[in-house]
Amino acid sequence: MPLFDFSLVLSGRYHDMLVSGLWLSLQLLAASLFFALPLAVVVALLRLSTHTILRSLGASYVEAVRNVPLLAHMLLWYFGIPELLPASVREWLYGWGYEAIAAVIALSLYTAAYMAEDVRSGIRAVHAGQFEAARALGLGHLAAMRLVVLPQAIRISLPPLISQTLDLWKNTSIATVIGSAELMYQAAQVETATFRSAEVFLFTTASYLAVALLITGLAAGCQRRLPVRSH
């Protein structure tokens, strides 16, 4: 047996398994980011609300989610929450690929808690005169926030949001614990079947690194096209 045989992971059945896992990981990333970012904006606005109840609600969400490991969130949504549902609904969920759904829910809620603090910092970094000017022009509170403040806040928050996106990409690997057939899950399956640990996990590592570098490159391009303007 040769010391290294990369043909195993570059073509054939095992290559297809790894690629399908990579594709699912990318889908988990995209779906989770799609839900996490809007939720983060809502939570950030709650955190900045002048109403005590709304502000407390936002703060409670952030503290409750960030102080629990992602692994616990993943297990809760896959094993715990379905137990509260009727047996027929639970069987239907598990029969229709609930692993990926539970992973997206857990990743979205977890990532949103961190992104919310970045967005909140971005909003606070926007000069108060911007909001006041928008209000003076006749815009309502929400309209001024949506049309004037938030676009600038997101631009300011872009670097930390990209960092959170990178963390989200790496966190998709935790979905393997609930049986979601993402990249790490498929890598473990291929390694068990072939006993070629080096080749399998080098391919896996290179895949995670390549996507992370792609995200970083796209972020750098966005920052060049959308520089933060000083006021």
How does this model look, in words?
The chain is mostly helical and 231 residues long. The chain has a domain at 23-183: MetI-like (MetI-like fold, Orthogonal Bundle). Helices cover 80% and strands 0% of the residues. The protein has helices at residues 7-10, 12-47, 52-66, 70-80, 87-95, 98-125, 128-136, 141-171, 183-194, 197-225. The radius of gyration is 21 Å and the shape is flat. The N and C termini lie far apart (66 Å).
Brief descriptors of the model:
231 residues, mainly alpha
Helix/strand layout:
Elements: H1 7-10, H2 12-47, H3 52-66, H4 70-80, H5 87-95, H6 98-125, H7 128-136, H8 141-171, H9 183-194, H10 197-225
Give unreliable regions as ranges.
Answer: none
The first-to-last residue Cα distance is 66 Å
- CATH architecture grouping of the domain at 23-183: Orthogonal Bundle
Shape: flat
Largest sheet: none
Concise overview:
The chain has 231 residues and is mainly α. It has helices spanning 7-10, 12-47, 52-66, 70-80, 87-95, 98-125, 128-136, 141-171, 183-194, 197-225.
